[in-house]
Design goal:
This protein has 220 residues and is of the alpha/beta class. It has helices spanning 2-12, 29-38, 48-54, 75-78, 91-103, 127-135, 137-141, 160-180, 199-204, 214-217; strands at 19-23, 42-45, 63-66, 84-88, 108-114, 145-152, 190-192, 209-212. An 8-stranded parallel beta sheet has the order 7-6-5-4-3-2-1-8. It binds pyridoxal-5'-phosphate.
Length: 220
């Protein structure tokens, strides 16, 4: 019941067009089922092995997102079923996703992950790297991936003004890419930003997709 109550509460203050990705890392299949029974359909994991183990144990109509650092040699394990990869941070990784998607006769949606935080530990592209990537012949030849937006993680801090600035930077990156590379491409529309501690700020700054873990499932 607790998870359902949490989801009820979260939904009272998020706009209907903001997608909620329930980040179920470290949570059990029972926990995920409880959220599913409440009506939650989008779940996100950050470890390949954990995702691959949970996927067959849960209903087919779940939309699985991958949100963690993805090693190229592990793409093949999730390529048959993953719906959205939030964490594309190199051309090499994108090439691998394209290759594995082709093998599975699929088109895999991807977000470009940007480095917006002040912490060295976080992954992601700079705007210049993203632009280089999107100009490259290799990217232009890829038929089995679709870039549907951007993702970023803010600095872990209580200072919401720092966080707000970083979310603004991500929104600026989105707008820039939209104008230069995806003008008229309706499917390029997602800004994945906002976690349990900062999702309200993220929504104020234009998030279309929030990734919530602890506030949905209880503390890790
Ligand atoms: C764990 C995780 C989240 C969710 O974090 P909470 O603070 O528990 O909401 C969101 N995004 C990514 C990439 C994560 O690894």
């Amino acid at each position: 019941m607790e998870i359902g109550n949490n989801l009820d509460k979260i939904h009272t203050d998020i706009p209907a067009d903001v997608k909620l990705v329930a980040i179920s890392k470290t949570k059990t299949v029972q926990n995920i089922s409880e959220a599913y029974q409440w009506g939650q359909r989008i779940f996100g994991e950050n470890k390949v092995q954990e995702l691959v183990e949970k996927h067959p144990l849960l209903p087919e109509d779940i939309e699985w997102h991958f949100v963690g650092h993805l090693q190229t040699n592990k793409v093949k394990y999730i390529a048959p079923f993953v719906n959205l990869i939030h964490s594309v941070e190199s051309l090499k990784l994108l090439k691998e996703i394209n290759k594995e998607a082709l093998k599975n006769n699929r088109i895999i949606d991807c977000l470009l992950q940007f480095y917006i935080a002040q912490e060295q530990t976080k992954f992601g592209l700079s705007i210049n790297e993203a632009e280089e990537m999107l100009k490259s012949h290799e990217y232009l030849e890829m038929k089995n991936i679709k870039i549907t937006g951007v993702m970023g993680m803010a600095t872990f801090t209580d200072d919401m003004e720092v966080v707000r600035k970083e979310f603004r930077a991500l929104k600026d990156h989105f707008n820039k890419l939209k104008n230069y590379f995806f003008a008229g491409t309706e499917s390029f529309r997602e800004i994945s930003m906002g976690m349990s501690d900062d999702y309200k700020t993220a929504i104020e700054e234009g998030s279309t997709m929030i990734r919530l873990g602890s506030i949905v499932f209880g503390g890790r």
